[in-house]
Amino acid sequence: MLDKEQDSGDTKGAASAPDSATDSAPKATSPPPPVYDESIVEEIGALIDDAKLYATAELAFQKTRANLAGKSVGIALGAVILAIILLHIALISMAVGLVIALEPLVTIWGAIAIVAGVMLLGVGALGYVAASKGRLIAEMFASPPIGEASDDGEEA
Questions:
Q1: Residue 14 CA from chain centroid, whole number
Q2: 24-45: per-residue pLDDT in tens?
Q3: Residue 153 to residue 151: CA distance in whole angstroms
Q4: Torsion sign, CA atoms 43, 45, 51, 54
């Protein structure tokens, strides 16, 4: 019989002991959940701030790169102009030297004619190459006549 009392006392004690977690808190209704999650709004705000920071940094980088490229282009253009001037002087020197070298073989007028003729042939060959490449470029950007099919099978 003692066993029954101990068993029943244990169950009564456990049932009658107040639960500290549920009884100590007042029984108030919880507020309704917000329509949006505040953490998501904070994350979107941080994302917008990061995007602004990235755009500002990218703009500064592109400005710096353009500035450096502009300076480099200026230096390169100056170097090309100087190289063309020096090439021109070298070609004049070569032409004068050839005239002087050919003069004992074929009079002065013959030497001038030979040197000038060879140079004019070179100019003509370079002009022909430039004109053919110019026509090729023009054909690349020309639109086909109306009603004629283009290369991909569609009409213009």
A1: 73
A2: 555 667 776 656 667 888 888 8
A3: 6
A4: negative
